[in-house]
Pvc16 N-terminal domain-containing protein (Mycetocola miduiensis), 159 residues
Amino acid sequence: MPTISSYGQAIASTTIALQQLLAAAPAKLQVTARTPDAARDGISGASVNLFLYRDDLTGYRDGHEEPGTTHNIAELFYLLSAYPGDASDADAVSHRAYGTARAVVQQHAVLTVPLGDQHTNVQIRSQSLSTENLTSLWLASEAPLRLCFGIIVTFTVSG
């Protein structure tokens, strides 16, 4: 279990593990982890992009730990966007990339993430985003709206 002092490393390792999971899909997706406005920099062909836009840490006690010890539930909120191979997307390749990525997330409810010499299991689930959330995210990024969905990753952090 990651500690609060290694929370930054846990976030980075989770993002990399999620990126590798998506890239290993049978469709051989190109996967980036960038801000939406930079998602296509240096990329040709269809791709998907992971953008971590929010995290939440919620403290809890289960009653079995020493006094003063707490745990946190970490939730990482990603926007996964699909990009076509060309401007017209006439062959709907972005739709295939989107569907492949969504299927990978649905098929892998738990992902093992390496953290140094240890591993932790994180829970993954997809999330449909409201029009309000989509509008806020895409307006803030100043990038054109793309086919996308949310991914929520949850794990426990000690301390």
